Amino acid sequence: MFTVILLMLAGVILGFSIRKYPLKSINKFITTLIWLLLFILGVEVGSNRQIINGLATLGLEAIIITIAAVLGSCVAAWALWYALYKRKKGENA
Amino acid sequence: MKGSLIIVAFFILGCITGLYNILPFNIAETDISFYALCALMFSVGLSVGNDPQTIKNFRSLNPRLVFLPVMTILGTLAGAAMASFVLTHRTTAECMAVGSGFGYYSLSSIFITEYKGAELGTIALLSNISREIITLLAAPLLVRWFGNLAPISSGGATTMDTTLPIITRCSGQEFVVVSIFHGFVVDFSVPFLVTFFCSL
Questions:
Q1: Of A37, A56, B162, B181, which alpha carbon lies 20 to 30 A from B126's?
Q2: Cα→Cα distances A62→A65, A90, B2, B145, B178, Å
Q3: pTM for the structure as a whole
Q4: A85 is in which domain, residue-wise?
Q5: Is the ipTM reported for this complex over the cut 0.85?
Q6: Cβ separation of B64 and A8 shorter than 8 Å?
């Protein structure tokens, strides 16, 4: 499991040490790999009847998690916003 | 936006391929996806380390706003944990793993598929795509309800690229640097957090 993370950190170190030589095509390569991997995920989903039949339910579950996550992060952002800006304005007034 | 559409198109193409058994062998049963994932993460690391802009951006940051990515991560995880009360057949860790995608749908769905299977992977894909879409559509409302930092938190890992234009328009030009910094930190946390919650 942690192989991938170690590989990423190795990439950061290598990329940093050769930063004098910009890697121009790396982003195209990344995009292509993402396409390949999502295609494979698609194949896996498509060949699994259970997932295909439950796609609507899965979508609903996804939306519930998203809305909860977005609201949670917005409340947290509001708290920081209040601490940094709003309260200060109140003191000035 | 165009980039996201192409990615979704590849996913749909894959679905159709799988549904009608077009490929002569089952690509999902091979090790290709694991090796591609390894190559992907190595390349992501390379591009981050190789970009001189990253360090330059961080120098001009308001030091108090360093906490914003932490707030985003904590708020998202708390929200996702709450969602598991509604979705009783999913464990809290599974919901938090999906939430840990922070809108980075390509990477999080790939990771979760690798660790937990295609069903939760699909939820992660749909959930994180909709996070990006919600941020793009609701940014003005979020500013009004939760203040100028809200669209940045809502955007999660996407605030350094896809949702950056809408954030600068709704929150203001002065939030560009914090938005990029935030996107970078949250982006970087995705593989760690997803792996962590999948291994619980």
A1: B181
A2: 5, 40, 22, 23, 28
A3: 0.79
A4: 54-93
A5: no
A6: no
